[in-house]
Amino acid sequence: MDDDQDIRDMAQLALRKFGRWDVTAAPSGQDALNLAKANPPDAILLDVSMPDMDDISVFEQLQRDPATQQIPVVLLTAKVLPSDRQRFATLGIWGMITKPFDPVTLSTQVTKLLGW
Q: Cα 116 vs. chain centroid, distance in angstroms?
């Protein structure tokens, strides 16, 4: 889920084409929460910068809801500091992928982070 339409479209297309995955995209954190609860996905690729709530708020709400707390979350971010990696790991986030990402290898990166 990403707030930038171009990035969302690129990620969705890449995951469909190269990963052959069924992908649902959400333009906001609240939309992502609603979609995840209504039809829990196998995993969530979550942008760090969202217009209505930040990544940690979305992640914490996912964790509080029994219907979504088991969904693995991978962050998509332009910010990659060692302290961020440590903080996200302690929260239970499965991994991070930096932007700009390579569309050809995105599904491979997600697969590797999730251990699929």
A: 16
| Tens digits of residue pLDDT in 30-42 | 898 999 999 999 9
Euclidean distance between the first and the last CA atom of the chain, given in angstroms as a whole number: 20
Exposed, middle or buried, 83 (CB in 10 Å: 0-12/13-18/19+)? exposed
pTM (2 d.p.): 0.84
Can you read off the two tokens belonging to residue 110?
């997600």
- Residue appearing with tokens 């992502």: 32
Kindly report whether the peptide bond that precedes residue 100 is cis, defined as omega within 30 degrees of 0: yes
Residues contacting 87, CB < 8 A, separation 6+? none
Q: HEC string of 67-89?
A: CCCCCCEEEEECCCCHHHHHHHH
Nearest residue to 45 via CA among 89, 76, 22: 76
